[in-house]
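Escalated from tier 1: 2-deoxy-2-amino glucitol-6-phosphate holo job.
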Amino acid sequence: MCGIIGYNGMSNAENILIKGLKNLEYRGYDSSGVALMNEDKIHIVKSEGRLAFLEQKLKSKNILSDMGIGHTRWATHGKPNEANAHPHTSQDRKFTVVHNGIIENFPIIRKELEKKGYKFCSETDTEVIPQLLSYHYHGDIKDAMQKTFVSLEGSFAAAILCKDDKDTIYVAKKASPLAVGRGNRENFISSDVGAIAEYAEEAVFLDDGEFAEIRKDRISFFDFNLKEKEKEFLKIAITPEDLTKGKYEHFMLKEIYEQPEKIKNLLKSKIKNNKIFLDEIAELSLEIMKAEKIYIVACGSAYHAGLAGKIAIEEMCRIPVEVDIASEFRYRNPPVNEKTPVIIISQSGETADSIAALRLANSKGSFVIGIVNVLPSTIANESDYVIPTKAGREIAVATTKGYLTQVCALYMLALHIADIRKTLTDESIRFYTEELLQIPDKISEILSDTSEIKTLSQKYSCKNDFFFIGRNTDFAVASEASLKLKEISYINSSAYPAGELKHGTIALIEKDTPVFALCANERLFKKTLSNIEEVISRGADVLCISQKGQIDKEKYNALEIPHCTDIFLPLLEIIPMQLFAYFVAENKGCNIDMPKNLAKSVTVE
Ligand code: AGP
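Tier 2 regenerated the structure:
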C-alpha cells in the first residue's frame, strides 16, 4: 500500500521524511518521492525503486527545509516509474500532492481539465488532485480544497503543499487512513501512526470527510463544509523496541517468538475470578442473548482466524456462525440485522474491504464487534464494540502474532458469550480457561527447539506445489499454514478439507507430491488418518502434524506438538507451520519481511 509522511517543525524535514518513509517500507512500494518547502519554493525529488535511490538523489541537492511531505507508492494506476511516483504537481506548480487511495472518477475529471488546457504528465489517478486544486484556486486554499475533494469519488488520504502558504501542510481524508501526530512545536502526518511513533507523543486519526491544517504550533480540523471541529488526541501506544528487529534476522521471526508473551498478556488482562470477562462487551448481554446467528467477516489471515473462531463459538455458545471473506460479503446483500451481530477481524484496522463490510453491517441494523490490533484505526473507531488483540506493532507483512492473538481473542469471546448464554457449565468454563492459560508455555516449548522444522525446510525448499489437508480445527490451521508458505516463499500451495480431497482434487496427487497432513484433532484423528492413507497410496510425500504420542512415528513422518484440547489446537498447530514457511523462505533467499507484491494493510479494494 502507498505510504504518506509529513513533517512541519524546527528540524531538518528531509531526514525525518526519509526515516518516516523507511518506517513505512514494510507496506510494500515500488517508487518514492518527497516535496520540501524552502522559502516559497517547493522542491520535488522522486525515484523509482528502493528508498536508497531517493536518498542518493537528495544528498546531491542539499535542500534545507523544515516542512515537507513524502510518499512511497504501491502502483494502482500507471506503471511503477519515476513519472508516476508521487508527489504530483499542478501544471502551474502551485499545488503539490501525495495521495493514498483510488480516485474512481479520475478519467472524467482528467478529460474535463484537458479540455480546459491542463497538461498531464503521468498515468496516475492522483494527478487530477493538484490540477483540480489549481483550477478551483482563486486565493483561498481551503475553498479550493473543499471544491476539489467533494468532487472526488473513491478513496483518498492526501497531503498538500501550496506555494502561497509556506507554513502549512493541508490534508484531506476519505476511506483511506491518515494519522496526525503532535509533538513539541512540531507536527506530523502519516498513513500509519507507527511510522511517527518515535517522534510524536500523541496522535489522532482523521475521520472520513475531514480536512486538517498542520502548522508548526497549531493543528486545526474541519469537516468538508469547512466547519471547524475538535478532535481528541490519544497517546501513541507503540514502543521504540516495536520498531527494531533486536537479536532476530527478520521482524517475522521476532514476531513469531513474541507470541507466547502476547497470548499470555492478552489472557491475563481479561481473567476475573478464574473466568474470561471481556469488559469491552459487558453491556452486550441482552443483545448476545437475542443473537440468532453471528457473522465473522475478514480478509486473509484474519479470515482464517475466523474459521477457528467459528468452531469454538458454535461448540461453546450453540449459535450458528457464518465466516465470510469481506470482499464477498460487502457485495452480496447479506441478511444481517439486529439479531445477527457481525464480528470484523482486522490486525491493521484499515483493510478497505473489511471497513466496507463493517459499514454495510451497520447500515443493516446489525451491531459490530471489532477484533482489532491497531488502535486508533478506522475499524476500531467505527465498531460498536472493540476487543483489542494487543499484539503490539506488527511489522512483517506476513502476520503471525497478529493472527494468533485474533484466534485467542475469538476463544475468549466464545467463553464470554457461553457464560452469558449459560451454554457451558461453570466447570467447563473453568476447564477451558485453564487450558487457555497453559497455551503460552506450550508455544514456548515448540519454539524452544526448531531444529527438526529447520531440517525439514531444507528438504522441501525446492518443491513447487504443496497441499495442506485437515479436518475441523486442522483445516482452519491448514488454511493459514498454506497462506504463510505462499506469501513469503512464493511456493504454490493449497489448503483442502481432508475429507474433500477424494471429490476431485486427489487427481493431482502423484509420486512425491508434498502433503502436510494436519491431524492433531484427537476426535477426528482416525478419519484424517484414512485420508492420509489415501494420499500415501497415490505416492504422496506426507508430513503429519500431530499431538505428542498421537501417531506412529515409525510409520509416518510427523512433527509433534504438545497436548491441548481439540478446540484450542490452532493456537499451537500453526506455530511449526509459521516456522516452516519462515525457514523455507530463508533457504530461498526471499525478502521475508516485505514479500513482493504484498502490502501490510490493503487500504484499497
Ligand atoms: C497475512 O499474512 C496477510 N498479510 C494478509 O492476508 C492479512 O491478514 C489481510 O490483508 C488482512 O489484514 P488485516 O488483518 O490488517 O485486516
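The radius of gyration is 25 Å.
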